[in-house]
Structure prediction request, 365 residues.
Amino acid sequence: MPIYTETKNGKTTYTVVATAQINGKQVNRKRRSISSMAMAKRIEVDLRIELRQLKENPNRYTWNQWVNVCIERMKLEFRKSTILGYEGNLRKWVNPILGAYFLDQITAAMIHDIIYNQIDTLSADGRRSVLKQVKRIFSMAVDEGLLIRNPAKSISVKVPEAVQSVLNRAEIDTLLFEAKKRGHPYYHHWALAIMTGMRKGELHALNWTDVDFENKVISVTKSWSRLDGIGPTKSTKNRYIPISNELEMFLRNLKAKNLTENGRVLESHEQWELGYQAYVLRQFCKEIGITSIKFHDLRATFITQMLIRGVPLAKVMKIVGHATIKTTMRYLRLVAQDTQGATESLGITLPRDFDQGNVVNLFQH
Prediction:
């Protein structure tokens, strides 16, 4: 194993190169920019041990090698956008640090250092996303029998709960009234989102063949995204949304207008295709003086309205396509935003405080 010396600008560094024949292939290991000969010799021993272990166990993967294997397998199962998310995050934040290490050399402390020190410029939500991806890579290694346990399993990132807004009943009426009166191009999109609780991608992919007027249900079987095109729903499961009388009238009127040529229920707009629908809605809400919300908050508004009217949690969960009842229960806190002030309609007033010096106590004998 040769050790090379390099002197630049009066500074000497050392490079260790290790080579071995493993399964008929030449395998190389190199460490550069070593500050002393003593350290270079220690690294030489480490590389010799590493290559011997690799020769004895040819299925031993480095982090980079295993990530590449996992990405190729994921392409058979996950959406393109999911794959791009893994590749982008791991290539930028994790691979430069863990890349040359074998999987069984990586410890929980190393992963903890990456998440909490090396990528601390990311938001808590961003760090949690990276950690989730790292956990999956190690989990696949455990499933393959390459590791006994997942070193990232015990690590977690606490993320502050995102602030979510909903419209109350009066604001819903104002939004739809003003949008229709002004002929807003998103009136149909907003109305259908509020009356069905469908996600933006599900609305985009909705066709008239999915609307069953006879049985009064909408079949939600697919979703659309800018990167993936048409694919399965977020939960990958189909669901059915009941069509109310008001929704039926809305849909029949919309179909009669024949605004689309490709069988889709809703018109396609440039902002819709580019993902700017949230901005459009926020600006319109500000313009008409109601709570400024994002497009996805229309789904939250639908859920809270269902809960306010006493629809059981399990039924709401089924209609909106939540994977667990726990997800649906999060919206219970938003119900208070809609019901706030409702008890004013009782019209009850309590007696005010009296000045006892000027008032006769009728209960005195």
